[in-house]
Prior knowledge:
Low-confidence stretches: 185-189
Mean pLDDT: 83
Largest sheet: 9 strands, mixed
Number of helices: 13
Structural class: alpha/beta
Strand order of the largest sheet: 4-3-5-6-7-8-9-14-13
Shape: globular
CATH superfamily of the largest domain: ANL, N-terminal domain
Distance between the termini: 61 Å
CATH architecture of the largest domain: 3-Layer(aba) Sandwich
Amino acid sequence: MALRVMRTALRRHRILRAKLAEFRCHARLARAEFEAERLARFRRHLAHAQRHSPYYAQVLREGRIDVAAATPADLPVLTKDILRDRFDDIVTDRRVTSAGVEAFLAGSDDPRELYLGQYRVLHTSGTSGPRAHLLFSEGDWVRGMAQMLRPAMRPPGSGALRPYRIGFYGSTRGHFGGVSMATPAGNDLVRFVVRAHLFEVDEPLAQTLAELDRFRPDFLVGYVAALRVLAEAQLEGRLALAPRAVHGGGEAMTAADAALLRRAFGGDVRNNYGCTEHLMMGLSTPDGGRMVVYDDDLVFEIRDDHCLVTNLYNETLPLFRYRIDDVVRRAPGDDPRFPYLALEAIIGRSEAPLTMRNDDGAPEALLPYSLIAVCVPDVIGFQARIDGDAALTLRVRVDPAAGAQRRATALAAMRGRVRGLLDGKRMRGVSLAVEEAATLLPDPRTGKLKLVVDARAPR
């Protein structure tokens, strides 16, 4: 057993060293050289997909695309619907099936557990439609996570003699991107360098604050909305942390968010840019003025209302020109210090916490990520509407093809799951109504579905 663990650790180490050497080489290139080298890797990656993915073999054959001369623009756009519908043909290991992954996820809420004993599984949230599955081999995962070891990504003081304490505040039960990236892959040599502790957003806030004070993280990371809750507690004197760095993720960090976090915690405050499909993609500059996208292994095509991203390191689930609905703007002017893509702004999902009164009459926040984790058969979308300090309505969109009994079962299951979340946060006095909705209205400003809508009168 010990020998196998050592071999696994050494294999990961070799993959990581090779990837970091690539990054060091790329950082010294001019942008034109950088793009030429990346195009060569794109063609090698496309050739791999042609050999092992029936979907891409068909795309290349029907499109009469010459792999040796191809560019990303030659390929069709891959949407989440196509990924979900054609998953079994896109994946490069014929043992992997969508049904098999769903069965695995139904029995596993530990992000360290591996499908077929070798694949990391992640899934999208599913709040506005059925969720999609993402798969990473051990090599894919190490190459994707190598982004976090770039010098700019390393938190200040991370080279101390004792293990560096990382505290992650978010949804920890399930195979989501955030918790998966925050969870070490296994009990190998990393435990001598990093000590990670996961803090569950579904636990009562007072309990979490006490646990954080005991752990005293050097590096605090979590969803932006979750970090705002901790910052407010720190400013109110209910928390006494002094982290060297605070990194948000999962949604846009506004200038007001960053100012709040700096006022509460001091230190280095940044926002990570990432997504479930492509893991870590970039990091904001210390002043928050730009988001630097480390696009060595990611090709971005920026559109007015979305982006197309081609992933060059995931050999298990090739994603060419995959659509993500982030609205971004390229920063004006190139930075001579690096060849990477710099963005002026990222306008992604930004959800408000569901804040009402707990059993003690104190404000308690049920964070939107707790709701995102709710997955019920036949439910294809939902929205939480706050009607008062102790009144919540859940508007649920059920698959129109489901019969009356299945629809009733789905609504009852949603009520049970959300009631359990409220009770777990000691919000037992909050009334919960559930209604079926034919449609869910998007935010008129962004055009995106808002998971939490506050219908209370302005205060």
